[in-house]
Amino acid sequence: MEPNFDVPEGRVRDRGELDLRLSRDDRPKTGDGVGKRAGGPARKPGRAAARPKASGRRRRSWLGRLVYSTVVLGLWAVIGLAGLIAYHASQLPPIDQLAVPKRPPNIAILASDGTLLANRGETGGRVVSIKELPPYLPRAFVAIEDRRFYQHFGVDPVGILRAIGQNLTRRGVAQGGSTLTQQLAKNLFLTPERSASRKIQEAILALWLEHKYSKDEILELYLNRVYFGAGAYGVEAAAQRYFGKPAKEVSLAQAAMLGGLVQAPSRLAPNRNLPAAQARAAQVLAAMQELGFASAQDVRVALAQPAKPANARGGGSANYVADLVMDVLDDYVGKFDTDITVQTTVDTALQATAEKALTDELNAKGARYNVGQGAMVSMRPDGAIRALIGGRDYAQSQFNRATTAKRQPGSSFKPFVYLAAVEHGATPDTVREDAPIRIGTWAPENYSHRYEGPVTLRTALAQSLNTVAVRLGQEVGPKAVVQTAQRLGITSPLQANGSIALGTSEVTLLEMVGAYGAFANGGTGVIPYVVTAVKGQGGTVLYKRSENGLGRVIDPNADGMMNAMMHETFVSGTGKKADIPGWDLAGKSGTTQDYRDAWFIGFSGSLVTGVWLGNDDGELTKKVSGGNLPAEIWKAYMTQALKGQTPVPLPGLNRWRKAPETTASVANAAPGTPAGILGQIFGEPEAPAPRPAAASRRAPKDDRNFIEKLFGIGD
User: Fold this and answer.
1) Residues near 377 by Cβ (< 8 Å), separated by ≥ 6?
2) 129-304: what fold?
3) How high is the pLDDT of residue 488?
4) Tens-digit pLDDT profile for residues 496-509
């Protein structure tokens, strides 16, 4: 029957009646203390239960409790650390998706002989293999930054303890505990913030890097990614920036300075704080000797001859070339994500010669003549730029005055006017009147404020007579002048008005030199260029220049006549100061109103060079004309540039060269003038070309001045 625990109504249940708790006797015992079994003898009432012996109970001593507590706390610490690591690891990309980010590509810009002109890009230098470097260079970084690099697994507990010990004995932070692998992890994946969270992630990533890459691969990555200051990322960029040489050529002293630089690039940069950089390099050398990375003798030599920074390449004129390359690079290659090499046409010797010629002249005479800036372009007649100077000092101003600044060319624009006239039937011996002329309210005057009367075009161009140029411009029409200039390569907007004959429309120096190239090469239009090839990693050709140009833009006979007239500039005209004995030269000077701009553009059969001087703000110079300072710079450069070369004849010059005995101005002079009388002596004159009605006015001059001018006796 089922038990019934109900209490009959009216009866109070005694608590003991339903007491279901186990007594001591109900619990099983072992040995003598075996509990009561069913049917066994009953335990005597009042007998106390036998107590266990003291040897049966494990007493916990204080040492045991300490060990136990330590183990428990240790387990909880491990669990907590694992949780902390797991949490911060969850903030990172999945390990199976983790990859070293690509390094921003570098653009190495090379001269025509393969030497480095400049680096462009975010890093400032190309990627180098550790095998390319002298052994002491990577060892310098290991010695000073992580001497146990080849022993630890990415995180160095020994190094951390050593750093803590040193920091406790010094004021402030004396030494860090980060390994090279941790530093690389920070540079590759993390922000530069200082926090416990970032340090944990740094350690996690360092372990991943050590698992993924070998020690040498990690060190190579580090050397190519670490920041050295001054915009230089990687050891190659730093070596070029501070010592002007590739990393594979640095000395032990220079390697030690680079190794010590990464601790504080801004404070230890040798071009800013050389004593501090050399002191830090000495510490690196001591560490290298201690670890056996360098012999005592080599260290003594390095300490006796500490590294010094080279002249700042960042301030050199080659950077103007590099800027031009970067401006046009998109035209040659599309998007790229690896390092590329750009081969240029620039000659390093000519670039240095041009820079020296310009800066020396400005340093010597710039203050006296109140001229602060200048630019030069020198190129082969086919358009290959050999030297380009965009300003006096790149470090002070990166504005490229050779390619970007638009200034009035003045009389250096006149050859386009004369070419248009030649193409309309004129010759170097054609005579025009040098006399006052007025077009509406405009009355142009000559530079000298004097007038020569009837003169040949050869003489008029050589002497840069404004009135003759204006007359020719009116005869052929301003539109014809503009079209002629554009056909030769001028791309800037030109105003087709009467003043175009005197160069009042603004152009760049590069445009002008390129247009003059057609005169130098026999009449073929050229497009100035600086890039010949672009290569990717492994030498893959991404672009190679093909022969191209504007085709024939000047008839060979017309080109010969133009060269003969511009040659006279060096013989008896405004370019006499620039003449180089033994060479046939041609060109034209240019001076704008109030001496605001001064130009000189000239060429041999092998080189075309243009010079501009002025002030960026348009301030007037103190009578700087194309025939003085620019001509002097041009001669200083061209003398060195042509040195040792065989003279190259100018196309068509000999056919139209000025006869030594007589002049076309005599042959074509009007009867009744002194020139006409001399013409009757030397031979029958040609029929004079028709003159505009405005040319009938002529300023008086005496016969003696005319004869001096005729035979080159005067200026």
Assistant:
1) 385, 387, 388, 389, 402, 509, 510, 513, 528, 609, 610
2) Penicillin binding protein transpeptidase fold (1.10.3810)
3) 97
4) 999 999 999 999 99
Higher-pLDDT residue of 288, 191 = 288
What type of residue sits at position 138? P
21-35, 126-140, 248-262, 421-435: segment of lowest average pLDDT: 21-35
The two most distant CA atoms of the chain are separated, in Å, by 173
Evaluate if residue 238 carries a pLDDT over 90. Answer: yes
Confidence (pTM): 0.75
Q: Which is catalytic among the residues 251, 378, 411, 572?
A: 411
Angle at 284 between CA 220 and CA 152, to 5 degrees: 50
Under a CB-based contact definition with an 8 Å cutoff, are residues 598 and 590 in contact? yes
* Helix or strand (DSSP H, E) at 322: helix 318-328
Residue 97 CA neighbour count, 13 Å, CB half: 5
CATH homologous superfamily of 408-506+659-715: DD-peptidase/beta-lactamase superfamily (3.40.710.10)
- Return the DSSP state at 577: G
- Catalytic annotation present for 145: yes
Q: What are phi and psi of 591, to 5 degrees?
A: -135, 125
Query: DSSP string spanning 584-618?
Result: --EEEEEE-GGG-EEEEEEE-SS-EEEEEEE-TT-
Catalytic residue of the set 145, 210, 220, 236: 145
Please enumerate in sequence order all residues whose Cβ is within 8 A of that of 72, keeping only pairs 6 or more positions apart, or say none: none
Both structure tokens of 389? 């100077």
411 among known catalytic residues: yes
- Distance of CA 590 to CAs 61, 412, 448, 613, Å? 106, 4, 14, 10
Helix (H, G, I), strand (E, B) or coil at 375: strand
In the structure, what pLDDT confidence band is assigned to residue 696 with cuts at 50, 70 and 90? very low
- Measured between alpha carbons, how far is 7 from 13 in angstroms, rounded to an integer? 6
